[in-house]
Amino acid sequence: NDVIDKHTQAGLDLLERYIKFVKERTEIEQNYAKQLRNMTKKYSKRGSKEEQECKFSNHASFQEILNELGDYAGQRELIAENMTANISDKLTKYLQDLKQERKTHLSDVKKAQQNLESSFKHLESIKKRFAKEWAEADKATQQAEKLESDNNNSKIDVDKAKNHALARMRTAEECRNSYAAELQKYNKEQNYFYYTEIPQIFNKLQDMDERRIRQLAEGYCQFSHIEKNVLPIISKCLEGIAAAGTKIDEKK
Asked: Which of 174, 175, 169 is nearest to 138 (CA)?
């Protein structure tokens, strides 16, 4: 149980670590986009003089480059947004559900162990009572035999001792039957605990851990897919920047 406890906790720790990793990556993308936008704003020309200069192709092309870079920044922001929604937020909610599920399964293991321990303690108490009653019955039987073998004792005393011994023996027999029944019951409970109840709970924990691994693997893939999805538009931005440079006519 301790091994499974540690193993499943290590799995949750890795999931949590990956979420933090993606959040840091998201912050980098957000900061990068913000810095790009600030830079395009800083270098963009405004006003009548600038408008006059933009009639020249080399001035106009630089403005186009800044516009393309603004669009490029937008794609970096989109990466951050999608990583937050499709990885961080999704896995964070999933992690909370897993923590609760794991807690429930481990609690069920603990309850099952406590129930078995309680049954064993009850069995031990019945066993002790049986041992005590059997010892008392044996003692009473020996006492009756001793009185009977001594001719100086009256028949009334001997019969009284015999009846007392028989009563003790009946009580001891009842205790033995109770112990035998309780032992049979405990053996069934122990068998159910080791071969049915605990394996079922551990199977649920294994299923939970396999689901966690599948979700984490999907999160790993998303880390790549999210960026790949914006590459076509990023390529267009870069092509636009190149086009802005190639269309300049130095003669004009």
From this structure: 169
Instruction: State the pLDDT at residue 190.
Output: 96
96 burial type by CB count under 10 A (0-12 exposed, 13-18 middle, 19+ buried): exposed
List the structure tokens of 69.
Answer: 């870079």
Sequence-ordered list of residues with C-beta below 8 angstroms from that of 204, at least 6 positions apart, any chain: 105
What contacts 85, CB < 8 A, 6 or more positions away? none
Q: What angle do CA 90, 91, 92 make, to 5 degrees?
A: 95
Buried b (16+ CB within 10 A) or exposed e, 34-64: eebbeebeeeeeeeeeeeeebeebebebbbb
Residue 199 — φ and ψ, nearest 5°? -55, -40
Q: Count the Cβ atoms, other than its own, within 10 Å of residue 117.
A: 10
pLDDT by residue (tens digit) across 203-245?
999 999 999 999 999 999 999 999 999 999 999 999 999 999 9
| Cα–Cα dist 104/36, whole Å | 48
Dump pLDDT digits (tens) for 171-205. Answer: 999 999 999 999 999 999 999 999 999 999 999 99
